[in-house]
């Protein structure tokens, strides 16, 4: 029998629901009410992160610990998230609150080296625009903006070593007025 657990993911204030189902060594994940899809996780960084294929794309998930409220701190593809384990009632209450807009902060999800800055402070960017290239585990990762906005700060330089959680690029989201 598949064992299911419901999670609420907080991506910079945007709440998403996820269901993780397990049966033996098989795992399936459904996001925002979508169909449960199989994932193929591979542990990396001494079991502190996983690379998994979900919906045809590879995702790097790095778990970096718990905060004072018991929320799991993590990064997924460079985006910081808070992961809360919810009972069904609390998860439904969180989902009914609706989505907020992200704050645009892009953080390192694993140790790496900044290879290239693709933007400058004050530059306008659109969601999906490439911001920075970071080399980690002998792979070059082009990280993109999660929001439309303007580059507020770039607290790193090309050639700089970064650690999980380090801020890489801060985008000030466009006003939604």
Record the SSE blueprint:
Elements: E1 3-11, E2 14-23, E3 26-31, E4 37-38, E5 40-44, E6 49-54, E7 57-66, E8 72-76, E9 79-85, H1 88-96, E10 105-107, E11 112-117, E12 124-125, E13 130-136, E14 139-144, E15 149-153, E16 161-162, E17 167-173
List keywords for this structure.
177 residues; mainly beta; Glycoprotein, Type 4 Pilin; OB fold (Dihydrolipoamide Acetyltransferase, E2P); 4-stranded antiparallel sheet; 5% helix; globular
Textual characterization of the structure:
The protein is mostly beta strands and 177 residues long. The chain has 2 domains: 3-96, Glycoprotein, Type 4 Pilin; 105-173, Beta Barrel (OB fold (Dihydrolipoamide Acetyltransferase, E2P)), CATH 2.40.50.100. The chain has one helix at 88-96; strands at residues 3-11, 14-23, 26-31, 37-38, 40-44, 49-54, 57-66, 72-76, 79-85, 105-107, 112-117, 124-125, 130-136, 139-144, 149-153, 161-162, 167-173. It has a 9-stranded antiparallel beta sheet with strand order 4-3-2-1-9-8-7-6-5, covered by helices on one side. A 4-stranded antiparallel beta sheet has the order 10-17-15-12, with no helix packed on it. β13 and β14 (139-144) form a beta hairpin. The radius of gyration is 17 Å and the shape is globular. It starts with a strand and ends with a strand.
């Amino acid at each position: 029998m598949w064992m299911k657990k419901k999670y609420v993911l907080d991506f910079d204030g945007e709440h998403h629901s996820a269901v993780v189902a397990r049966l033996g060594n098989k795992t399936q994940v459904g996001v925002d009410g979508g169909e449960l899809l199989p994932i193929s996780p591979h542990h990396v960084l001494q079991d502190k992160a996983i690379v998994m294929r979900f919906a045809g794309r590879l995702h790097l998930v790095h778990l970096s610990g718990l905060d004072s409220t018991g929320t799991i701190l993590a990064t997924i593809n460079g985006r910081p998230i808070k992961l809360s384990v919810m009972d069904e009632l609390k998860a439904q209450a969180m989902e009914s609150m609706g989505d907020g807009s992200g704050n645009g902060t892009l953080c390192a999800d694993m140790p790496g080296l900044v290879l290239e800055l693709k933007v400058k402070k004050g530059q306008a960017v659109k969601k999906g625009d490439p911001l920075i290239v970071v080399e980690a585990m002998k792979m070059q990762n082009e990280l993109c903006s999660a929001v439309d906005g303007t580059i507020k700060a770039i607290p790193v330089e090309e050639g700089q070593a970064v650690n999980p959680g380090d801020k890489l690029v801060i985008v000030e989201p466009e006003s939604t007025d």
